[in-house]
Q: What sequence folds into this?
């Protein structure tokens, strides 16, 4: 009975340690950067926007934001460099609504964290599957090579060497293929605010603009 409880406690401690590590690696730094972006960029913008809704967003940001400020997402500079004044305004307003501290956003943010945690778990599973697949692939190839070079009797524990080896090679290739698919899926579904990939930046911008157009009339600044 005591051993069972010790096993349960060990498992819980391991899970807590894993969650803490994932939070530090994948959440804490971005959360700090996001809060700084909200306080240093979005709040001053909103104050100026409330005074003059026809303000020149491009001019305001050029004066307010420094290029070396890594707290500001790259999509802001992307819109700034391309003089996308209307899109930039919508993106900043959407980010303000999205990051504003209230109960609705807190609950939605928790759901995002859960979703992102699952993304990290999928990524971890992909790494494990890659290791698993590589092990089977290498063991299968080495078995065939040893059989050819040393002239083994063609069996491993009573099982035909070539069948065993080809099975391992097949499992290895399938596992590696699945890991590649999983990693590609992770990259596609993960909305990284601080990405510097052009395609992902454009996708983020379009998503924010569409959501702003959909919900802007329901929100009050």
A:
């Amino acid at each position: 009975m005591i051993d069972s409880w010790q096993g349960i406690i060990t498992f819980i401690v391991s899970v807590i340690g894993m969650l803490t590590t994932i939070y530090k690696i994948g959440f804490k730094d971005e959360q700090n950067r996001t809060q700084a972006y909200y306080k240093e960029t979005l709040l001053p913008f909103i104050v100026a926007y409330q005074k003059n809704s026809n303000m020149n967003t491009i001019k305001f940001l050029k004066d307010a934001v420094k290029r070396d400020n890594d707290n500001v997402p790259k999509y802001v500079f992307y819109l700034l460099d391309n003089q996308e004044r209307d899109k930039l305004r919508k993106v900043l307003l959407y980010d303000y609504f999205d990051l504003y501290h209230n109960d609705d956003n807190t609950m939605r943010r928790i759901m995002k964290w859960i979703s992102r945690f699952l993304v990290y778990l999928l990524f971890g599973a992909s790494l494990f599957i890659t290791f698993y697949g590589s092990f089977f692939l290498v063991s299968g190839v080495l078995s065939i090579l040893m059989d050819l070079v040393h002239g083994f009797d063609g069996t491993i524990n009573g099982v035909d060497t070539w069948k065993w080896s080809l099975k391992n090679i097949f499992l290895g290739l399938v596992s590696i293929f699945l890991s590649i698919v999983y990693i590609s899926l992770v990259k596609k579904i993960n909305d990284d605010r601080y990405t510097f990939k052009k395609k992902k930046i454009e996708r983020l911008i379009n998503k924010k603009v569409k959501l702003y157009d959909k919900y802007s009339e329901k929100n009050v600044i």
